[in-house]
Design a protein that fits this description.
- The complex is a heterodimer of chains A (248) and B (484).
- With 248 residues, chain A is an alpha/beta fold.
- Chain A is built from ten helices and twelve strands.
- Chain A has a six-stranded mixed beta sheet, with helices on both faces. A four-stranded antiparallel beta sheet of chain A has the order 2-1-4-5.
- In chain A, helix 6 runs parallel beside helix 7.
- Chain A is globular, with a radius of gyration of 18 Å.
- Chain B has one domain.
- Chain B contains eleven helices and 22 strands.
- In chain B, helix 2 packs antiparallel against helix 7, helix 8 packs across helix 9 and helix 9 crosses helix 11.
- Chain B is globular, with a radius of gyration of 21 Å.
- The chains are: A alpha/beta (248), B alpha/beta (484).
- At the A-B interface, helix 2, strand 7 and helix 3 of A face helix 8 and helix 9 of B.
- The structure holds adenosine-5'-triphosphate (ATP) and magnesium ion (MG).
- Magnesium ion binds next to helix 1 of chain A.
Chain lengths: 248, 484
Amino acid sequence: MLKIEGLKASVEGKEVLRGIDLEVPAGEVHAIMGPNGSGKSTLGYVLAGREGYEVTAGSVTFRGQDLLAMEPEERAAAGLFLAFQYPVELPGVGNANFLRQALNAVRRARGEPELDAMQFLKLVRGKVKALGMTEEMLKRAVNVGFSGGEKKRNEILQMAILEPAFCILDETDSGLDIDALKIVAEGVNALRSPERGMLVITHYQRLLDHIVPDRVHVLVGGRIVQSGGPELARELEAKGYGELQAAA
Amino acid sequence: MPAATDTLETVRDVTEGGYRWGFETPIEQELIPKGLNEDIIRLISAKKEEPAWLLEWRLKAFRAWCAMEEPRWAAVRYPPIDYQDLHYYAAPKRKAQPKSLDEVDPELLRTYEKLGIPLREQERLAGVAVDAVFDSVSVATTFKEKLAEAGVIFCSFSEAVREHPDLVRRFLGTVVPPSDNFFAALNSAVFSDGSFVYVPKGVRCPMELSTYFRINARNTGQFERTLIVAEEGAYVSYLEGCTAPQRDENQLHAAVVELVALDEATIKYSTVQNWYPGDAEGRGGIYNFVTKRGACRGAKSKISWTQVETGSAITWKYPSCILQGEGSVGEFYSVAITNNRQQADTGTKMIHIGPRTRSTIVSKGISAGEGQNTYRGLVRILPKAQHARNFTQCDSLLIGDRCGAHTVPYIESRNPTARVEHEATTSRIAEDQLFYCRQRGMTEEEAVGLIVNGFAREVLKELPMEFAVEAQKLLAISLEGSVG
Ligand SMILES: Nc1ncnc2c1ncn2[C@@H]1O[C@H](COP(=O)(O)OP(=O)(O)OP(=O)(O)O)[C@@H](O)[C@H]1O
Ligand SMILES: [Mg+2]
């Protein structure tokens, strides 16, 4: 479903991704772990098409399409979703409005009919409840004044509503309390399906206890230095990145 | 979900592009010769069959104007205007005063339909009465009878002069004296048409009132004159909208609006100004030089101005409140957009005369392209204004790096018990905000529209619900081509 080959990218003239090969087939969940500054978020941004993240080599195919040739919104319409490590605040923009506009933009791009206010409200209410959020959060401005955990839950709410084909979760577990972590993991697991792929960036085994990955990759210095099954995450938690870093 | 917060409808058809109100109505015009002198003023007054006192009033204003200089202090640049090279009166030709809509030229009705302002009974916006002003004359006013039942007078200014001369004479020029400033004097000399509203004591006007101003004729100035009076305890909400054809030459619109609120009366005055702004290179567009002022004469009276200024090549406009009555309240909520080569110098004056008077100013300036946006505001507290209060919030949003935002607040306090607060911010649409929206599937233009509407929310929520969605769309449309 997502195939990355020899991907190199720089930010502000600095090479951050230094040759990444990674394939995530439909139906699988892959985890990416790695020390701070190793390029995990950069990989997410490059896949989502953020300006300023310059691809210097390699290719990415997503559902048979050349992902790197697409605009960010086209990637979103094609089903790529990035849950941000640091969700962005949009002062004055109501959360519900934002969600509905996003959903309708994606539906439009896919040639599906848009939802009117009532249909949308019905949809969103169900999801809000399932994520243990309050409807009050829908009225507030997007992420403004949200606590760290609320922001992360809001990302998952967006994901639940957009139902993307491929989800990249960038440290969605950071800043969540134990209950919230469970709820978020449930939200993610609810979306697991044979048609859907996921890339879960995390520092902690505890998320992977809830969302059990098919593969775990270790990113160090802009390269994947080791890949393995779910047990790799536990090993890393025990040993740290020391050895791998020395090798890289 | 209430329309005021519903940005979702809005930005949908943003991608079509261009100024959509720029068409011209092919209609036979009655045009008086170009030029400005006492004979022209006599001619205008005669055309309108005005009483002698009003002609005298106009002539006095004209003489004052002749001795005045065009103001140059605003942060706007434009070539000199040749006031002798304009027509001061243009009207669609007609046989007699139309008695009903059936007698109104169908071409005019079609024009308003195209503008989204259906005048015919069955198609009207429910709960909104409309006065339609086309160049120098009012072509129709809807719901007059229904309003009359409540005792509310809503008609064109010309009709008010004919039908309610005493009321007009009592209030005309009492808020904006004819010699107030260059453009007000010009307007007083040659004003054409506008609306007149009178809400008697204790009456809450049963519907929204609105006037739709349309400039159609070439080389013609439009000089709107509006007067709204709310007697003791009365309430009225009034909205004006404006559009003009797309042309390469500039056109002048110099309006005067006067509001009078007596004891415990409230007037809510909203504007959605969308005159033709000129093209991307700065060719054409309306010069919008406007004097708007409200007098809170009565105790606890309230005047609230809300404006959404998206159009015009140049906007020069400072809707103001004279807070005379004890405990009276003045408000000014403004969104002004300048894109391409547009220039806006706009703000307000809050003159606190009476004790415990309060005022609130919320100004949101958005600059894109090479647009220049200046907020110019004055808060003056006079010695008797014990415990007067003002709060001013001035926010500027910049899109791109060739535009400008300027804030010029003047504060004069002559009473030590008064409290005046001023906050100002300048920000840009951040790259991460745009990326966030685009990652969720929106185009860059949709994202800008959404973020700008969010920025302007505090002001947009003050608009009557019927117009809020329209205004939100306008904001997004006005910024087309400002990104990417
Ligand atoms: N916009 C930027 N300007 C300059 N340097 C950047 C920028 N974005 C990323 N970098 C650098 O690229 C490297 C990788 O950053 P990235 O955010 O991808 O790391 P990460 O693996 O997500 O780290 P963390 O675990 O702390 O989230 C870091 O050295 C970072 O400083
Ligand atoms: Mg990161």
